[in-house]
Amino acid sequence: MNNNHKISIREKVGYAMGDAAANLVWRGALAYLTIFYTDTFGISAAAAALLLLLVRLSDGITDIIMGMVSDRTTSRWGKFRPWVLWSAPILGLFMALTFTTPDFSYAGKLAWAYFTYIMLTLAYTANNVPYSALMGVITPSNSERTSLSGFRFAGAFGGGILVMGFTPDLVRFFGKGNDAIGYQYTMYTFAIALVIMMVITFFSTKERVKPHMTSSKSLKEEILDLSKNMPVIIVPLIAITLFFHYRNFTTGIIFVAVILLMYFLIKRFMNKPTESMSHSQLDMLDLLKNKPWLILLAVGFLFMMFNAVKYGVIPYYFKYYLQDELLTGKYFIALLIISVVAALLTGTLSKLIGKKQLFIWSMILGAVFSAVFFWLPPSNIALIFVFGCASEFFAAIMPTLFFSMLGDSADYSEWKTGRRATGLIFSAGTFINKTGGGFAGALVLVVLGVYGYNGQDASTVQGAIPAMKLLMSWIPAAFAVATALFLAFYPISTQMNLQIETELSEKRRRESVDIESAEEV
């Protein structure tokens, strides 16, 4: 590896602070939002599930647009770093408002929940899509990206420790028996920390890879052009949401019909002459022909279903099955400490056995340790912690590898086509993670609802205990196995990565020499 591509520890830590900040939102909302809605704010499980599903439709638009916007941003600070800075105060504001409980009617509460959660996801998109893409331009080295990704997710898990580990205690401290007030002031505290850490990321990182943009269109023209392709993304999501929520024959037929229609439309789009395509259409075409990226898209969704289902049910599992709500925070701390260790070891482990093989074995072993939860009695706290930490160790390897492999797929696209849409590729990664997280949160509420759970009616709890056990064991294990099966078809090997890195470095060196020669003339 070229020593000029090495990144300092200071910059890696600074970059990691950004994901520590983001995870004050991401893991906080993922871990506590569902139980906050059902048990504190008083929204039914079915209504909260539909909310989580519908909000993901906006992500289908905003993540892709944000990737293109950040790709086309020009400033003296770079393409991606300015967005990390500008969006931080807005993200902190809506983090606090989402967990605020105004004294509205039930309909008013639903409207408030929709407004604040939609705005929270929009602010998160404006912040995290450019933040994720920033990793792709800090260094051209895939091994340094893997190391940087390890630091990133160590930071993410560190931020998770703060919000997931201490939220129950802070809610009790600030609320003094009033959970609504407790949640509000707890999120104020985390919002301030978020802004400070994002500022650190902005000042401690540097963009070094400068891909050439070939589009002659304005940003407005590009977004209008992209909007013509949005139905290909949004319509299938609407069909999936309807089927997921209503689960009947009619919505099943609609879902199958929409998927078949989209398949034929995509095939026709891919057969169009490239000369007639706009820059944004060429970006989309590159993605659709990028096999590693397509596989990672499926992997990212399935993994998030695996991990977010477990995280979503943990507060219910500890509150009702173990009868110890405050133990939830201690369990989250244990999981996240293990996650930090796993994230920091991922770079070394991937060098020893390769990213693909490490990923597959992590998913298989994560599934095994998750399935064991079905037989664990509530009295054996020690075994619950041991198997939970074992499962989490392997689960924590995934996000580090996933975002590193997204960078590899961006390299693959540039290697194959000569074009590179880093922001668009990484925006798809954050989109699929958020979509998986949204569907996982909804799945938790749907399964609980099927077993009759009502957060405002204590008599429904006992009947929902089997649902909590399934959501901690067999359901996430099934998603982990499906993830491993998709990974078996991932085509980029360690040898191919080295070849791509070498050839792209040589190509960029030649282009740099040509530019310098032209400037001299």
Question: What does this protein structure show overall?
Answer:
- The chain has 521 residues and is mainly α.
- The chain has a single domain, classed as MFS general substrate transporter like domains (Growth Hormone, Chain: A, Up-down Bundle).
- The protein is 81% helix and 0% strand.
- It is built from 18 helices and no strands.
- It has helices at 9-41, 45-71, 81-98, 106-138, 142-175, 179-204, 219-227, 230-246, 249-270, 279-288, 291-321, 327-353, 355-371, 381-417, 422-450, 461-472, 474-487, 494-520.
- Helix 2 runs antiparallel to helix 15 (422-450), helix 3 packs antiparallel against helix 4 (106-138) and helix 11 (291-321) runs antiparallel to helix 17 (474-487).
- The chain is globular.
Task: Tell me the major beta sheet.
Answer: none
- Which band does the percent of strand residues land in? under 5%
CATH class: Mainly Alpha
Order of helices and strands: HHHHHHHHHHHHHHHHHH
> What is the share of helical residues?
over 70%
Name given to the CATH homologous superfamily: MFS general substrate transporter like domains
User: What characteristic shape results from the CA principal axes?
Assistant: globular
- What is the helix tally? 18
What is the radius of gyration? 23 Å
Tell me the CATH architecture: Up-down Bundle
Which short descriptors sum up this protein?
Growth Hormone, Chain: A, globular, mainly alpha, 18 helices
